[in-house]
Amino acid sequence: MTESVPILKIGTTLLVSIQVDLQDDTALQLQEDLADRITRTGARGVIIDISGLEIVDSFIGRMLAAVAAISRVLDAQTVVVGMRPAVAITMVELGLSLGGVRTALDVERGLAMLEPDEESAEDVLLAAAAEREQR
Amino acid sequence: MTTATLERLAVSTDADVVRVRQAVRTFAQQARLSLVDQTKFVTAASELARNMLVYGGGGDVEVEVVSDGRRTGVRAAFADEGPGIPDLDLALTDGWTSGGGLGLGLSGSRRLVGQFSIDTAPGAGTRVEIATWSR
Ligand SMILES: Nc1ncnc2c1ncn2[C@@H]1O[C@H](COP(=O)(O)OP(=O)(O)O)[C@@H](O)[C@H]1O
Ligand SMILES: [Mg+2]
Fold it and tell me: Domain locations in chain B?
């Protein structure tokens, strides 16, 4: 077994950035660790950044779908972000649909998907600041 | 720069499957495959190496750069001395698995590569060969 993938906690969101090619047992370990961290922290969202992954085969695809399903049961949402275009093309041809998995282009957009309320609050503040500047 | 034109790797652990992906990537680059074709080929190799490990009890991978004088290509062979595949048509059906997989490894990898062939018989092991040529 290689070393495990670190899980960061930002507010009510867990962030996992997969930086290296995952071997199967490490991927399964990550799936278990995430379920554990969601229950222990009461996290409402999980962002899995796969921009570092050069391929997503059926094993990793199944892991991503499993994390999404498990988090849903634990009242949290998972968003997979950063998929490379070549990976997306390959996954579709392989036959992997990732049906129940929400995706976003990058971490920022993933966060916005998870925290629409806070995001709009921020927008309000920014708009207010911009207005002040104009005066 | 001198580059290897053939490499043999033994697969008996999850870490070996990662090594196969990395070696196959290097050869696919040497064969001047496009990024998408590289990604497809490496993904297929990952599926086949895992099958060898999970169902074939481990085996050997041979990967090489090939040339027909006009184009270059990458070829990889996955050979195990496991139980073989009793019903190949069934095994090649999308979604069919005898274990707990997604049943996309064989059928999907066939779609991802230029050439795909299987030699298998009950009790006589399995040998899968794949190749993709540069365009
Ligand atoms: N090398 C092999 N040796 C024996 N059986 C195999 C081998 N590769 C594949 N199979 C059989 O073919 C089935 C389909 O394989 P695959 O499409 O990769 O799906 P999965 O691995 O998800 O089961 C496997 O469930 C297994 O029964
Ligand atoms: Mg398989």
Answer: 2-133
Pocket residues: Cβ below 6 A from ligand 1: B 47, 51-52, 55-56, 80, 82-83, 85, 91, 96-99, 101-107, 126
Q: Which structural domain range is residue A51 located in?
A: 7-106
Q: Which residues of chain A have pLDDT under 50?
A: 119
Query: Across the interface, do A94 and B109 touch by the CB < 8 Å criterion?
Result: yes
Q: How far apart are CA B7 and CA B23, in angstroms?
A: 8
- Specify whether the CB–CB gap between B9 and B45 falls below 8 A: no
Tokens of A74: 């634990």
pTM to 2 decimals?
Answer: 0.92
Q: Which among B45, B104, B53, B52 has a CA at the least distance from the CA of B75?
A: B45
d(CA B33, CA B41) in angstroms, rounded, equals 9
